[in-house]
Task: inverse folding
């Protein structure tokens, strides 16, 4: 029985019927069927027979199943024509005579490089208790220092009772906030609390409170009420007594502790007395070693308040390390010195320089509160020899000892002739000139008035007052005053006839100058006088 021709899939048939849009197929001349290809069934049976007997050749149905199925209406490449396809009945499309080349198979894409594994964040920072009462604890912390590329998913808050190793998760969902309130706790419990940061890499190292937190109501949080004078540096001299009272508050009774520069206090030198309201720091006799940072801590359960008191014990400074004479010339001597090795635990505020004549041996201060490290001492006496010494000063006082020069300054007599400079005397001669002129005035009958002006000149000018170009002279109605160049004319109880033009004239050997003003004297008319008229 001859074998059946291989079936053709619908999609392949449709693709054969419809030429591909991307690659147009050239038209082929109509093919004439040769006589040898007339029986299609025999050709198909002869080509497919070995495939049926052999195990390696796939069945026609399997080959059809492995062929790609194209969607309807999609442009696909024409399949390669096989023997079974050659024996298939001809279709209406003339594409049977033009075989389409098969596209080369593409290489499979390489798999993407997997990302590096996620790393957990570092532990949260600065976990503290912000509030606590009978049933809840409020926590606060800072974000981890290292978060990583995977970001931060949130935080988990856990707690366990003291003495137990089981940790209870307080938040059912991760929280992104840096604070959390653990609620519904049992009064009187002692809880260990920790916070863990979570991201794609897993859990971080936990941030755990150093001490268990007692669940109870804090009536009054601890607080130090630092006096104002202790908020800045507290300075005392060596040998003085220190008695500091620092008030505080807190309920229940706080626990008070003191440290100096991070170390416990030496009870042999420093006495601490604590009461319910204050703490007293007492030093009977202060020494330089007592200087430092004193820290006071007031603690109620997990709440704590701290304050730092800076105490500085100062003393007199030592003398300058050295002093030397640099040069001497004429009546002068140049000195230089170096700061003291011991400044008395405070800054050097100045130096005191003294000189002593070798004839008398008495010391006299020539510079005091001097800030530089070099100076020139002048006005020395010719023929004498001088020694010099320097003291250091600070806020406590002047040093007890001094640095003395090893050399002596000799002030020579010979070769020194003092000739005072000659100065030409200035000629201050000047003609009179008014620096302030008279101003027109209006006066009232019966009320004394005054005219003022100012003049300068050398030699001192003579002042004359005139009314309407007539010299007033010694008329008792007028009072003339000239005080340091300020000239005034006082008119006592003027009447309407005293109005006019007043002139002040100043003259000396170099010339004269005048100023004038107009004075108007008005009569006061009362309301009763108007009614009578």
Result:
């Amino acid at each position: 029985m001859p074998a059946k021709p291989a079936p053709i899939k619908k999609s392949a048939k449709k693709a054969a019927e419809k030429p591909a849009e991307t690659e147009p197929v050239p038209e082929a001349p109509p093919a004439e069927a040769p006589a040898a290809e007339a029986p299609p069934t025999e050709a198909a049976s002869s080509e497919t027979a070995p495939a049926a007997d052999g195990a390696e050749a796939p069945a026609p149905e399997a080959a059809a199943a492995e062929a790609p199925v194209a969607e309807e209406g999609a442009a696909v490449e024409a399949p390669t024509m096989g023997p079974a396809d050659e024996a298939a009945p001809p279709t209406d499309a003339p594409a049977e005579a033009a075989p389409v080349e098969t596209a080369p198979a593409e290489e499979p894409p390489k798999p993407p490089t997997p990302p590096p594994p996620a790393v957990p964040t570092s532990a949260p920072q600065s976990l503290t208790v912000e509030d606590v009462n009978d049933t809840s604890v409020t926590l606060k912390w800072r974000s981890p220092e290292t978060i990583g590329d995977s970001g931060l998913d949130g935080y988990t808050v856990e707690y366990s009772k003291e003495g137990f190793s089981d940790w209870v998760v307080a938040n059912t969902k991760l929280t992104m906030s840096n604070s959390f309130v653990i609620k519904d706790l049992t009064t009187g419990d002692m809880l260990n609390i920790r916070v863990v940061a979570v991201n794609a890499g897993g859990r971080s190292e936990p941030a755990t409170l150093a001490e268990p937190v007692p669940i109870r109501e804090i009536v009054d949080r601890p607080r130090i009420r630092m006096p104002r004078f202790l908020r800045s540096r507290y300075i005392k001299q060596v040998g003085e007594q220190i008695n500091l009272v620092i008030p505080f508050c807190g309920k229940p009774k706080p626990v008070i502790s003191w440290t100096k520069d991070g170390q416990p206090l030496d009870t042999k030198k420093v006495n601490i007395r604590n009461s319910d309201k204050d703490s007293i720091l007492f030093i009977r006799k202060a020494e330089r070693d007592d200087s430092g940072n004193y820290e006071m801590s007031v603690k109620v359960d997990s709440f704590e308040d701290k304050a730092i008191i800076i105490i500085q014990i100062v003393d007199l400074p030592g003398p300058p390390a050295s002093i030397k004479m640099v040069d001497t010339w004429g009546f002068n001597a140049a000195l230089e010195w170096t700061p003291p090795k011991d400044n008395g635990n405070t800054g050097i505020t100045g130096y005191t320089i003294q000189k002593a004549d070798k004839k008398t041996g008495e010391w006299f201060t020539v510079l005091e509160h001097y800030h530089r490290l070099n100076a020139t001492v002048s006005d020395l006496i010719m023929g004498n020899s001088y020694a010099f010494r320097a003291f250091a000063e600070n806020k406590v006082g002047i040093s007890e000892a001094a640095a003395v020069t090893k050399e002596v300054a000799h002030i020579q007599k010979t070769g020194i002739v003092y000739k005072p400079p000659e100065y030409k005397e200035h000629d201050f001669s000047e003609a009179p000139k008014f620096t302030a002129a008279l101003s027109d005035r209006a006066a009232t009958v019966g009320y004394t008035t005054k005219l003022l002006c100012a003049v300068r000149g050398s030699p001192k000018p003579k002042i004359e007052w005139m009314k309407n170009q007539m010299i007033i002279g010694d008329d008792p109605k007028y009072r003339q005053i000239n005080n340091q160049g300020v000239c005034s004319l006082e008119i006592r109880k003027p009447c309407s006839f005293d109005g006019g033009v007043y002139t002040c004239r100043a003259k000396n050997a170099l010339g004269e100058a005048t100023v004038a003003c107009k004075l108007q004297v008005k009569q006061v008319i009362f309301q009763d006088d108007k009614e009578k008229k």
Notes: Residues 40-53 form the longest helix (14 residues). The chain has five domains: 10-97, 125-214, 220-314, 323-410, 430-522.
